[in-house]
Specification:
heterodimer, A: about 90 residues, mainly alpha, F1FO ATP Synthase, 3 helices, elongated, B: about 280 residues, two-stranded antiparallel ribbon, about 70% helix
């Protein structure tokens, strides 16, 4: 975040590149996770609409899938923070 | 009462005292570890830092939670909450992941993971005077979670990793256990698949630790950055936008992420240990 502000004011190309890399890493990670999470909740709605009595059992699986998918953003975030700090 | 505590939390969050104390605000410095009490045993550095204090506090609170919620003869409101937590640990985690013969042995471990990680996560979102900084002699209040440090989560997932292979070898014998890593596939493809399977065992370690660590770190960075924007951009008008967004993320983290991450960590530990005790083939 700070990188973005600094790059705009000083015109430092290295910092600009780093900021773009960070944003791309997180953004693409969020893109994948967004699709995945939408898929999970969409399927959950469909299955509960078909068989409402299974809601309790499905909920555990749903949250497991949600957390597993959501973690994808953070792998992207971690990778891009590493790139931002180390490069 | 609950509302009052909640309002106090939000107010303390909206006034990032460390920033006032330093005069500037940099969210990344919130995660630095300073040695408070230096303990050095040979090559081992056992110094007490912020994370260690939070872990100790979490341990004490976990023990107290167990004592308060589970003890007693009558099934009053407090015991009912305890029973509900027990049911989540038993039905949703232990029975899903562990085979029936191992539930008695490994239920305490996964239930402890669930409670401990939940407690450490939740005290990370309660402002406490443990930032290690003072403002005119008064300790400043801030939020920090021990689980937003990779060392803590890696230690927790190493426990699961070691237990998984220990139990796999103990129940199946080393030959049968390591043979279960080799999936049924055409012989020509095995040289490709077996290294991937072995790599997969170590990837579990990484994914388990990084998931919890990065979730908590990202949650704290989000909240701190949005409040920090006030100080970085030097504008008070921004408070109108920034504080509601920070409060929104705060509620999201406390209500959903904290519990889900604790649940996931315990559930995946149970699944890993269970799949080692009873391999698929």
């Amino acid at each position: 975040m700070l990188g973005i502000v600094l790059a705009a004011t000083t015109g430092d190309v290295t910092k600009a590149g780093k900021a773009i890399g960070l944003a791309l890493g997180v953004g693409l990670g969020a893109l994948g996770a967004g699709v995945g999470i939408g898929n999970i909740f969409g399927s959950m709605i469909q299955s509960v609409a078909r068989q409402p009595e299974l809601r309790g059992e499905l909920q555990g699986i749903q949250w497991l899938g949600f957390a597993l998918t959501e973690a994808v953003v953070f792998y992207g975030l971690l990778g891009s923070i590493l790139a931002y700090v180390l490069v | 009462m609950k509302r009052l505590v909640f309002a106090a939390c939000l107010l303390a969050l909206a006034l990032p005292a460390p920033a006032f104390a330093r005069g500037h605000f940099d969210p990344t410095t919130e995660f630095e570890q300073h040695k408070w009490v230096s303990i050095q045993i040979g090559p081992l550095d056992l110094s007490i830092t912020k994370a260690v204090v939070y872990l100790m506090l979490g341990t004490v609170l976990t023990i107290l939670l167990g004592l308060v919620l589970m003890r007693g003869r009558v099934l009053d409101r407090r015991r009912t909450i305890g029973e509900q937590i027990y049911e989540v640990a038993q039905v949703q985690i232990a029975e899903q992941g562990l085979p029936t013969k191992a539930i008695g042995l490994w239920f305490p471990y996964v239930a402890t993971l669930l409670l401990f990680i939940w407690v450490v996560n939740i005290i990370g979102f309660i402002p406490l005077p443990l930032t290690g900084e003072t403002w005119h002699g008064i300790p400043t209040w801030g939020i920090y979670a021990a689980t937003s440090s990779l060392a803590v989560t890696l230690a927790l997932s190493l426990l699961t990793f070691v237990f998984t292979h220990f139990e796999g070898i103990r129940w199946n014998g080393p030959r049968r256990y390591f043979k279960s890593w080799i999936p049924e596939a055409p012989r020509a493809l095995l040289f490709l698949i077996v290294p991937l399977e072995i790599l997969g065992q170590f990837m579990r370690l990484i994914s388990l630790s990084v998931r919890l660590f990065a979730n908590m770190l990202a949650g704290h960075i989000l909240i701190l950055t949005f409040i920090g924007l006030l100080f970085i951009l030097q504008s008070v008008i921004l408070a109108v936008f920034v504080i509601p967004i920070a409060a929104l993320f705060y509620v999201f983290e406390v209500v959903i992420v904290v519990s889900i991450q604790a649940f996931i960590f315990a559930a995946l530990s149970a699944i890993y240990i269970g799949s080692a005790i009873e391999p698929q083939h």
